[in-house]
Amino acid sequence: MRFILSFLFFSIGLTSINAQGIEFFKGTWEEALAEAKKQDKILFVDAYAKWCGPCKRMAAQVFPLKEVGDVYNEHFINLKLDCEKADGITFRKKYPVQAFPTLYFLDPNGEIVHRTKGGRQADGLIALANEAMSKYDSSADYATEYEKGNRDPELVMNYVKALNKSGKPSLKIANDYIRSQKDMSTPENLKFILEATSEADSKIFDMLIQNKAAIVELEGQEAVDKKIEKACNKTLAKAIEFESADLFNEAKSKFAKNLPSKSATFMATANMDYYKACKDCKNYLKTITAYVKKDVKNDASKLNKTAIDIAGSFSDDAKAMKLAEKYASKAASNGGLSKYYLSYAHILLKNGKKSEALGAAQTALEKADGGPNEKSAAEKLISKIKQG
């Protein structure tokens, strides 16, 4: 089950996270691959060249972003390779690099999981990560032994970990193991509880909270907090998928109780996504208005995204479209970019304001500097408006 929240990336941190973007491995690609094998993770390789423009833009503008680093530091061992130098040249002998950048995702055995060419913005790079993770699943290796009756604690731990990584259900395996144990307070079993916690609406989550102090001592406060956050996010996703008020309230209650310092942001995004899924326009608009006032304020990018989200979710509601127009107008005015004026023009047109929409579209065309696609989009909209 997958669900992407509209305004917030919930993510898990890994080794020595400094919240400053992707942390790249220091060493050769063979050493990086060995580390990926050790941690049973995918190896992400940015195969670049120093003179490559898109490579430089990604290094300067995308890799340092927190939301990108959170995803890549959690799920991958990350490596940058200058493919015109020794180690990069060695890499190219095995993995073809015919354009820069080429982004490789390799499994711990060095097999290609996914490969693509060209630079990406943050959303695109995160989408690539999700695609690569969806293609890598090592749980079958452990399932075979498990089904033969092997209940070695290390194997069960690795099996649950692999299931969690691949997004497959792991609670049955975890619960069966817990029922077989006389003492769950051992260091090994406390670590198992942390790994096995995947949803907030589960007994294992309650065990995590009951043993929180001991697990924090073993694994650190950050690891426990992020596990709580991810579990609540998973339960929220279920609440949205099934439009379950009980799961919705449980996710919010457990988040607020266990992570009070982050609860305000979680509540806002949870409410917006839940009310949107349930087509509850009244509560959705109430929540999103408070969100903009407190968190978005005058940020043009977030205002534009909010306007698009409102228009896409409640395009038939006059009050919602009026609010979308307000935020789109503010985004265009504050940001001044062609794409903001284009969003504003589309919303104005939807609201029946043809002449104003034409003016906004023409401004978008005048400001178009994002390449031919941006210019073409403005020209097409202008043509559409003129043709009625």
Report what the structure shows.
This protein is of the alpha+beta class and 388 residues long. It has three domains: 29-135, Glutaredoxin (3-Layer(aba) Sandwich); 139-265, no CATH class; 295-386, Tetratricopeptide repeat domain (Serine Threonine Protein Phosphatase 5, Tetratricopeptide repeat), CATH 1.25.40. Helices cover 65% and strands 6% of the residues. The protein has helices spanning 29-39, 53-62, 66-75, 86-94, 122-135, 139-147, 153-166, 171-179, 187-196, 203-210, 212-219, 221-242, 245-258, 263-277, 281-296, 300-313, 318-335, 338-350, 354-367, 372-386; strands spanning 42-48, 76-82, 102-106, 112-117. It has a four-stranded mixed β-sheet, with helices on both faces. The chain is flat and about 75 Å long. The model is unreliable at 1-19 (pLDDT under 50).
Secondary structure elements and their pairing?
Blueprint: H1 29-39, E1 42-48, H2 53-62, H3 66-75, E2 76-82, H4 86-94, E3 102-106, E4 112-117, H5 122-135, H6 139-147, H7 153-166, H8 171-179, H9 187-196, H10 203-210, H11 212-219, H12 221-242, H13 245-258, H14 263-277, H15 281-296, H16 300-313, H17 318-335, H18 338-350, H19 354-367, H20 372-386
Parallel strand pairs: 1-2
Antiparallel strand pairs: 1-3, 3-4
Helix pairs in contact: 3-5, 6-7, 7-8, 9-10, 9-11, 11-12, 12-13, 12-14, 13-14, 14-15, 15-16, 16-17, 16-18, 17-18, 18-19, 18-20, 19-20
Quick recap of the structure?
The protein is α+β, with helices and mostly antiparallel strands and 388 residues long. It is 65% helix and 6% strand.
